[in-house]
Amino acid sequence: MDLRTLSIAFIALLLAVFSTTAVVSAAAQPAILNKKAISPTHRNIRILKQIALSGSLREYRARALHLLAAMRNVRTLMALSEILKKTDDDQLRAWTAMALTRLPNHRGYRTLEYGTSLPSSPSRVRISCLKALSMTLKKGITHMLNLLLRDREYRIRYAAAAALPLSATRYNIYHMNRLLKNGSTIEMKRAVARGMLALNSRRTRSAARAAIQREKDTTLLKILLEHLLKSGGSSKTQLQKWSADSGKPSAFRSACAAAMQ
After folding, report:
1. Range of the domain at 59
2. Do 57 and 34 form a contact (C-beta atoms < 8 A)?
3. Same domain, 126 and 185
4. Is the dihedral angle over the CA atoms 135, 136, 142, 148 positive or is it negative?
5. Are residues 100 and 157 in the same domain?
6. Phi and psi for 87 in degrees, rounded to 5?
7. 10 belongs to a structural domain
8. For residue 4, what pLDDT band results from cuts at 50, 70 and 90?
9. 88, 105, 136: which is the final residue of a domain?
């Protein structure tokens, strides 16, 4: 047997070994995932990561991710980071980002902060990281939101605007009021208005009233009206004036008239 034949045989052997050790077969996946808990060994973490990324069924991928997250062990940091970057499933990506927030000693937060701030990261990854940070740190990401509101990508600016009402800091209120007036798109203004409605703060009422005076979009106007009614920021005189304003959409005028009854 010549050297070339030996080389080919050796490579084939390596491929055979790799295919049996590195790839978890579809038949083997249920037995692995049926366990209530798995110890956080490097081998187990590697197997679960593989199933989470390429499991034969979505329920297998979700179960593998659940088992990884349940470990709450810093050894899972690299595996969760890889899943965050590579998975095509939006829901699994969101769960992965939240799993990173639960690692001991805040070890996952640096990964999320880096994933949010890095412009070269795919926008879907950046948004998942931002949502996980905003839901857990709230006031702690005020500075980051300030940067992201000026991001070159619209989807990132939109996600940052949607995260503002999660914390009622003076800074966030200022940006909400500013974006309601100067937002680049009607979708951005609607997102801010929904945030105001959810936040229900007196400090956004004057901006909401001013926006009603100048805006024409029915959806936006109705969200702002609901915010004012909920927060006690509308008077009967104002409602009468808006219901009689022929420059406003009829649906909004009807909503104002109904609010007076």
Report:
1. 47-136
2. no
3. no
4. negative
5. no
6. -65, 145
7. no
8. low
9. 136
Among the residue ranges 8-12, 35-39, 48-52, the one predicted with the least confidence is 8-12
Band the pLDDT of 23: cuts 50, 70, 90. Answer: low
Contacts made by residues 55-59, CB under 8 angstroms, sequence distance 24+: 55/29, 56/26, 56/29, 57/29, 58/89
**pLDDT average, residue stretch 56-64:** 94
At 59 the pLDDT is 95
Domain match, 85 and 153 both: no
Contact 259, 234 (CB under 8 A): yes
- Name the maximum alpha-carbon separation found in the chain: 98
**Residue pointed to by tokens 């839901």:** 135
> C-alpha angle 246/251/253, rounded to 5°?
45
DSSP 162-181: HHGGGS--HHHHHHHHHHHH
Residue 218 maps to a domain: yes
Q: What is the mean pLDDT of the chain?
A: 87
In a domain, 13, yes or no: no
Entry pTM = 0.77
User: Is position 32 within any domain?
Assistant: no
Count of C-beta atoms within a 10 Å radius of residue 127: 26
Q: How many structural domains is the chain composed of?
A: 2
More confident of the two residues 32 and 222: 222
**For the chain, how many residues are written?**
261
CA-to-CA distance for 259 and 184, rounded, in angstroms?
30
Q: What is the CATH number of the domain that holds 160?
A: 1.25.10
CA dihedral 249, 254, 257, 261 (to 10 degrees): -160
Q: What is the pLDDT of residue 43?
A: 92
Least Cα distance to 100 among 117, 116, 84, 119 occurs for: 84
